[in-house]
Design a protein that fits this description.
Radius of gyration of chain A: 21 Å
Number of strands of chain A: 9
Radius of gyration of chain B: 20 Å
Distance between the termini of chain B: 31 Å
Strand order of the largest sheet of chain A: 7-6-5-8-9
Largest interface: A-B, 40 and 40 residues
Number of strands of chain B: 0
Largest sheet of chain B: none
Helix content of chain B: 55-70%
Oligomer: heterodimer
Strand content of chain B: under 5%
Number of helices of chain B: 8
Low-confidence stretches of chain B: 1-8, 106-122
Distance between the termini of chain A: 54 Å
Order of helices and strands of chain A: HHEEHHHEEHHHEEEEHEH
Structural class of chain B: mainly alpha
Structural class of chain A: alpha+beta
Mean pLDDT of chain B: 79
Chain lengths: ~300, ~190
């Protein structure tokens, strides 16, 4: 290539500006909102690719693509209300019951063009991402009955949004790549941290033992799951902080070890894999390891 | 991972994933990596600096707007962007040809002969020359005089000793055959 054919200097900024006018980047926000923002952009890119041809295609739970986007907006609106951001639609007030809120939002959405539902969902996501100040996200709020830190609620939203985006891709035979490593790390970490309460709800008592969990591939790491909490002992932490207080297991504490791909774990925790069939390597007490796999999808939605 | 995906640091699949996730830094990275290829290709095909800039903006604008249209499993981002740039540049050349033809057949901007080392080697000029060479002699003469010689159809008629209407229809028929030949080579829409 000859030098006279090098792109002129001003072309870069002009090209980037022209591109930004054609598609908004992921909703800008602070650290706690970024994984959610990335997944929102992914679903929106998928909806662009479908170009309106699949709004009525059934996806999950009897919902079409259009209704599923409305359901996501309904769930998002509970978080909006909980953190003082304007929910969409603002009236009636979302309350804290997911089923009734979903019914309200779905009934409204069915009377509106799907593109409007999409715009409202995206607009509310943008508002949500702007609502967490730098250094914020540590307050505990209640959403759909679950008290958690705001940053974890955003991870729960990221998780569900991604799972449904993947549902839509499958139902429409479209291609959707996995989330980039940063949001995937955060989503997987959230999924692992949900394991102790999931085991508890399923009636599995770990007692003094622990289960080692190794997620391999992008976004993975190494955790020790104990009765009360799961601790990351290897791999990059999603928030980039140093792993202070990571407790290595005591000799003999780890009764079983499970190893699977990060993505497969996320699909399992999202209720998209059969715990009995998921591709996994187990060592140690197989029954305990199986109990964890069975408990993993406890918090998965429809 | 495919061969070539890792030669330039971040692989295509990872970059594509970031584009899908709305990461504008990934678009900047894609631009910095491939704008020379895209712009250079567009410039060679169009021989027009402004058109090459427009093509470059369109190519990266489209990558950003519809990132899922690029599937890293089916080929490299470099080839995908080059193919898109080539198509858009040829579109521009055709529109330009139509415009010039309307203005009474002045000399036509034929693409510069390619010295292409690029992956898709967009040697449009070479393909056009081959298509011209393949024409029957009477059509070829009319085309060469009109487009490479810069003559009007009246001058072509005089040089070849033909009625003006015949010269005109030979030029038109020759153009149509070239277009068909190029389309057959995949330079069409």
């Amino acid at each position: 290539m000859t030098a006279e054919h090098a792109p002129p200097r001003g072309l870069r900024s002009a090209t980037l500006a022209a591109a930004a006018a054609r598609r908004a980047p992921a909703p800008p926000g602070t650290g706690p909102t970024r994984p959610y923002a990335a997944v929102v952009a992914m679903l929106d890119a998928l909806l662009t690719e479908l170009a309106g041809a699949h709004w009525r295609t059934p996806v999950v739970n009897g919902w079409t693509v259009h209704e599923l986007v409305a359901h996501l907006a309904a769930t998002d609106s509970l978080l909006a209300a909980a953190i003082g951001a304007p929910p969409v639609p603002p009236a009636p007030a979302p309350g804290d019951d997911l089923d009734s809120r979903t019914r309200t939002v779905l009934e409204r959405a069915r009377r509106l063009p799907p593109e409007r539902t999409r715009r409202e969902w995206r607009g509310q996501a943008e508002t949500l991402c702007r609502s967490v100040p730098e250094g914020g996200g540590d307050d505990r709020v209640r959403v759909a009955g679950w008290p958690m830190r705001v940053r974890d609620h955003f991870l729960a939203r990221a998780f569900e949004t991604w799972v449904h985006a993947d549902d839509i891709a499958s139902a429409t035979r479209s291609r959707l790549p996995p989330p980039p490593v940063a949001p995937l790390t955060a989503i997987a970490d959230f999924g692992v941290r949900s394991l102790p309460p999931a085991l508890d709800l399923c009636g599995t008592d770990l007692g003094d033992s622990a289960i080692g969990l190794i997620l391999h591939g992008p976004g993975g790491g190494h955790w020790v799951v104990r009765a009360r909490r799961a601790t990351r002992i290897g791999g990059p932490r999603p928030d980039g902080r140093r792993g202070a207080g990571a407790t290595a297991p005591r000799p003999g504490e780890v009764a079983a070890e499970i190893s699977l791909s990060t993505l497969e774990f996320c699909f399992l925790a999202g209720g998209r894999r059969d715990p009995a069939a998921v591709e996994v390597e187990i060592s140690g007490e197989a029954a305990l390891a199986r109990a964890l796999l069975v408990a993993a999808p406890t918090f998965a939605g429809p | 991972m495919r061969v070539g995906a890792c030669e330039e640091g971040r692989g295509d699949a990872e970059l594509a994933g970031l584009l899908v996730a709305g990461d504008s830094g990934a678009l900047e990275e894609a631009y910095d990596r491939y704008a020379p290829v895209v712009y250079g290709l567009a410039r060679r095909v169009t021989r027009d600096a402004q058109a090459a800039e427009d093509v470059t903006q369109e190519v990266f604008g489209r990558l950003w707007e519809r990132p899922l249209a690029f599937d890293p499993a089916r080929g490299s981002l470099r080839v995908w962007l080059s193919t898109l740039a080539h198509r858009r540049a040829v579109d521009w050349v055709r529109a330009e040809q139509r415009r010039r033809r309307m203005n009474a057949l002045p000399d036509l901007a034929t693409p510069e002969p390619g010295v292409d080392v690029d992956v898709i080697a967009a040697d449009v000029a070479g393909r056009v020359r081959r298509a011209v060479t393949a024409l029957p002699p009477d059509l070829r003469a009319a085309i060469v005089l009109a487009y490479y010689g810069g003559h009007t159809y009246r001058q072509v008629a005089r040089v070849l000793g033909l009625p003006e209407g015949t010269a005109k229809s030979r030029i038109r028929l020759g153009l149509r055959r070239i277009a068909t030949a190029l389309e057959g080579e995949g330079i069409g829409r």
